[in-house]
Design a protein that fits this description.
mainly beta; 25-stranded parallel β-sheet; 3 helices; rod-shaped; Autotrns_rpt; signal; transmembrane; transmembrane helix
Length: about 650
């Protein structure tokens, strides 16, 4: 017979003892559960200066419901502590590392946890935020305050902020969802605060939203911003700062603001700043900020390469979306950029700020449908290389692509600004000391121009639909890479607003026009050979107030004229004692001559084959005197309008 208390052969408890033990175990678990829900201690009074409820007991009440620990007891292991009174402060000591002894600390309903121990770490194993604020204030000087442990973001969420520009709040703690209940989001920064928050932990898994509202949030891990599903919004004066060669997978929503691209004004920071080789892998949205007049966005690289693999898309209802990209480091945008706006008087623009290189591999769409709108792809510094298509089609208003700086603008894809609208301009031009390359097809563009620097027409470029080729300020249109010569087609016009150069062999086809000067005489140099077909036209400008002042066509190679090349003038009455040289060449070929139209009264066209020039001579003047005067006047002493005058004249028409 087996005894109820013990199995004598096996030496183990019998059934009755096991039943009793199981009952005790269950009751014990119930008691533990009851005790866990009961030991909540609430802060009764806000900490004043030099007080710290984090380590002291005078502001803690008795535990509820059992009364343990007694009121006034310093935080003790095994108890949960709560500050849920709005604007009530729970402070750290003002120096040294500190570890919170309680099991958990909840900051809720607008209460504050103030970290006041500069160059030290506050460790809270289980910090719970439910509408609570964590504020770092290194009031003793520029230094770092650290928070370690774990932070659970409950439904009301939490806010982290650094009180001033000299304070750095380093969050070494992981940000996670609560063990139970609805998870919340996190806000970094408060209104008008400009400190720095550093997220060092790569194990943050919270699923709520992220808002950066002010100051700088430095991210040192690709997973510091939690689960990527919800994304991060950068608003106000806040900035997301990427360091540590990381990849951030989540979507970003950037709210527009007024941006200082020099990075000197902390209230006008770009929304994203990168230092090192970092990647933004999620899509980026551009949304209107509080002031639609300053709807600007910035992606800045301070060193290394900032890679953007997702697309960049603007809110179509915005009245302005200006995306500035650049910095001392390179920027590579592998996705598409789309700024397609529908509001009246909208601005859709992408600006390369330099001084390093910005490369866009994807398609760039800059369109607007509102009257009085403007689209632009501009370079102000460094190089901008666009390998995809630039689509400005079906826009109502002005559209342009311009290089204003000393670097390179290279468009390897097609350009579409169609259809041409006679009331607006659709231009591609170089206005700085750098260069602009057109390598693909061009549609809907009114004018290509070099107002200074160089505009390069690539060997495979198709600019047959462009009406004007403009030159000013010593600018160069370089078509030397075009095999077989660069053709100026019927209906196309090369206009020298001021002095300029066509580089390469050029063919002026029938119906094509060279116009030398619009507001004052201008020189056009062809660095190569020039063939002028029958039916083409050369239009020169004479200054009737200055004897001898006339536009000059200078061909460094061979000038070949077919018959019936028209030569026109802007004045039919000029002083009757002048000599005007309008063409020079290296060699002459062909049997043709210019056919003058509107020849000034009393003058005729004269050719000097020995001197390789042609000009106007007043008929009553003796021929030997003409030759003497002509030799003395070649390009010397002629009145020339200043480049600024010419640029101003061009601006009144085109810009």
């Amino acid at each position: 017979m087996i005894c109820d208390a013990m199995n004598p052969r096996l030496g183990i408890p019998g059934p009755r003892w096991a039943t009793t033990a199981l009952w005790v175990m269950v009751m014990g678990l119930l008691l533990v559960g009851t005790w866990a829900a009961a030991d909540v201690v609430t802060q009764t009074q806000s900490d004043a200066a030099d007080q710290s409820a984090l380590v002291e007991g005078q502001h803690w009440g008795a535990g509820v419901p059992g009364g343990a620990p007694p009121a006034g007891t310093a935080p003790t292991a095994g108890y949960d502590y709560v500050n849920d009174q709005q604007d009530s402060l729970t402070r750290t000591p003002t120096s040294g590392d500190v570890t919170f002894a309680g099991r958990s600390l909840t900051i809720a309903n607008g209460a504050w946890l103030e970290l006041l121990n500069p160059a030290a770490t506050t460790t809270i194993t289980d910090l719970r935020l439910n509408g609570g604020i964590v504020d770092a204030d290194a009031s003793l000087g520029a230094t770092t305050v650290r928070l370690a442990g774990a932070v659970a973001l409950a439904q009301g969420g939490g806010t982290f902020q650094a009180a001033d520009s000299s304070t750095v709040l380093a969050i070494d703690a992981a940000l996670v969802d609560p063990a139970a209940g609805t998870p919340g989001g996190v806000t970094f920064g408060g209104t008008g605060l400009e400190g720095t928050i550093v997220l060092t932990n790569g194990a943050s898994t919270y699923t709520g939203s992220t808002l950066i509202s002010s100051g700088v949030v430095e991210v040192q891990s690709g997973h510091a911003l939690g689960a990527p599903a919800v994304g991060t919004t950068v608003a106000g004066t806040g900035a997301l700062w990427l360091t540590g060669d990381i990849a951030v997978p989540e979507a970003l929503n950037l709210l527009g603001r007024d941006i200082d691209r020099t990075l000197q004004d902390p209230t006008k920071r770009p929304q994203v700043i990168s230092q090192g080789d970092n990647t933004l892998a999620g899509p980026i949205g551009l949304s209107s900020g509080p002031d639609p007049a300053f709807n600007q966005f910035g992606l800045v690289s301070l060193g290394g390469t900032l890679k953007v693999t997702g697309g960049v898309t603007a809110d179509t209802s915005a009245t302005q979306a200006i995306l500035g990209v650049g910095g001392p480091g390179d920027v590579l945008v592998q996705g598409d950029i789309s700024i397609a706006l529908s509001a009246p008087a909208a601005q859709a623009r992408v600006l390369a700020l330099g001084p390093a290189t910005t490369t866009i591999d994807g398609k760039v769409t800059l369109t607007h449908t509102g009257v009085g709108s403007f689209a632009a792809l501009d370079v102000y510094g460094g190089d901008l290389i666009v390998n995809g298509k630039v689509d400005m089609a079906n826009s109502v208003g002005n559209s342009s692509m311009a290089n204003w700086g000393s670097g390179r603008l290279q468009i390897h894809g097609d350009i579409d600004m169609s259809p041409i609208n006679t009331d607006d301009y659709h231009d591609v031009f170089n206005a700085g000391s750098g260069s602009t390359l057109i390598a693909g097809g061009v549609a809907g563009v009114d004018a290509l121009g070099a107002y200074s620097g160089t505009l390069v027409v690539g060997a495979a470029a198709d600019i047959s639909s462009v009406h004007w080729l403009d030159l000013d300020g010593g600018g160069i249109i370089d078509a030397s890479g075009v095999v077989g010569g660069f053709s100026v087609l019927a209906g196309q016009e090369v206009t020298a607003w001021g002095d300029g150069t066509l580089r390469g062999d050029v063919i002026l086809e029938s119906g094509g026009l060279f116009r030398l000067g619009r507001y004052s005489p201008a020189d056009l140099t062809v660095e190569g050979s020039l063939t002028m077909r029958a039916g083409s036209m050369l239009s020169v400008m004479i200054d009737p107030t200055d004897t001898g002042a006339i536009s000059l066509l200078e061909v460094t190679g061979t000038l070949l004229l077919d018959s019936e090349v028209l030569l026109t003038f802007n004045w039919d009455q000029i002083p009757d004692d002048g000599t005007y040289v309008f063409a020079r060449w290296g060699q002459w070929a062909g049997a043709g001559r210019f056919t003058p139209v509107g020849l000034p009264t009393g003058y005729e066209v004269y050719y000097d084959d020995a001197e390789h020039l042609a000009g106007l001579v007043w008929v009553p003047a003796p021929a030997p005197l003409f030759l003497i005067v002509l030799g003395a006047l070649v390009l010397a002493g002629r009145r020339r309008a200043s480049p600024d005058d010419r640029r101003g004249a061009g601006a009144s028409v085109w810009w």
